[in-house]
């Protein structure tokens, strides 16, 4: 009971949504709980989850990486260009490129004191142009179908190697944030950077780590989805920034920094994936789908604010009565 009292209203809301959203669609559509549809839902989790995970880390340290969507597209194109003989080499090249760009983003914030919104906006534009230059304005095919079959092979109905990679990334970062000094420094950096520096926290390392993860995870997501789709495209990441940011906020990550739990981010991604999957099954138009997504997100944001504190206090008083 004492552990449950540590939850706030937004935590209960998050759990309620992850139960209610699939339950509603399961009642409306007989296909929602089919193995094929649930596998497709998890495949979407694998893509958005990696991008949201890296973006969330930059939000935890009080910054924001606008370049993740463009990085997804460039990561896919690098895979298609360099992974002709070996998918492993293509993925490695994409991840290294994403890592380098992430470190550059961090360097701009740390050394030049440039706002991450400004610097990553510039990097986003540069990456977009770089992607169109690589592709020469066209879609780049990738003919390693064996790699695609292996990457998306179903494991126990709901999993695949691509999904397992995303789950593994969530698990590793969960351990880092919960049990290491670096994890504590990440939260301290986002809470109050100057005070964190004065107290001995390595804020520079925290920023480098967050942006490096953001860049490399986005590039990895792009490379993996390009293998699955057998193509790379400069427009591959369109819409992913909004999805990733929405999933992070649904997961309780604060735009002000210093707040965010890895398992809640995973829940946020799953809520968004289930919602969009169910709406797609029902044939809902993109405009209505955006409206519903925005309404859910707005409600969660409100619940994460002062209303959450008010409801939480009421719940504690009721429990202690």
UniProtKB/TrEMBL annotation:
Transmembrane parts of this sequence: 12-32, 38-57, 64-80, 86-110, 117-135, 155-177, 207-228, 240-258, 265-284, 290-307
Keywords from the UniProt entry: Cell membrane, Membrane, Transmembrane, Transmembrane helix
Major site of localization recorded for this protein: membrane
Membrane topology type: Multi-pass membrane protein
Family under the similarity heading: Belongs to the binding-protein-dependent transport system permease family. AraH/RbsC subfamily.
UniProt protein name: ABC transporter permease
Keyword Membrane among UniProt keywords: yes
Localization, UniProt: Cell inner membrane
């Amino acid at each position: 009971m004492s552990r449950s009292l540590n939850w706030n209203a937004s935590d209960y809301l998050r759990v309620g949504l992850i139960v209610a959203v699939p339950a509603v669609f399961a009642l409306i559509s007989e296909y929602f709980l089919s193995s094929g549809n649930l596998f497709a839902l998890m495949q979407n989790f694998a893509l958005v989850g990696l991008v949201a995970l890296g973006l969330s880390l930059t939000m935890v340290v009080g910054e924001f990486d606008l370049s993740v969507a463009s990085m997804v597209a460039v990561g896919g194109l690098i895979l298609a260009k360099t992974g002709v003989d070996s998918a492993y080499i293509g993925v490695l090249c994409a991840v290294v490129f994403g890592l380098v760009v992430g470190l550059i983003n961090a360097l701009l914030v740390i050394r030049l004191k440039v706002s991450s919104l400004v610097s990553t906006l510039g990097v986003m534009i540069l990456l977009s142009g770089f992607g169109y230059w690589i592709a020469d304005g066209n879609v780049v095919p990738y003919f390693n179908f064996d790699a695609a079959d292996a990457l998306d092979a179903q494991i126990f109905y709901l999993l695949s190697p691509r999904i397992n990679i995303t789950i593994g990334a969530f698990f590793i970062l969960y351990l880092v944030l919960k049990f290491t000094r670096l994890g504590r420094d990440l939260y301290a950096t986002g809470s109050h950077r100057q005070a964190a520096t004065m107290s001995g926290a390595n804020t520079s390392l925290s920023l480098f780590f967050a942006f490096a993860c953001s860049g490399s995870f986005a590039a990895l997501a792009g490379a993996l989805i390009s293998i699955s789709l057998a193509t790379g495209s400069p427009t591959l990441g369109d819409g992913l920034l909004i999805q990733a940011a929405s999933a992070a906020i649904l997961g309780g990550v604060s735009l002000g920094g210093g707040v965010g739990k890895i398992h809640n981010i995973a829940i946020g991604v799953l809520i968004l994936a289930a919602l969009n999957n169910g709406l797609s099954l029902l044939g809902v138009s993109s405009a209505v789908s955006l409206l519903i997504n925005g309404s859910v997100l707005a409600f969660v944001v409100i619940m994460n604010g002062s209303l959450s504190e008010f409801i939480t206090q009421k719940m504690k008083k009721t429990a202690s009565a």
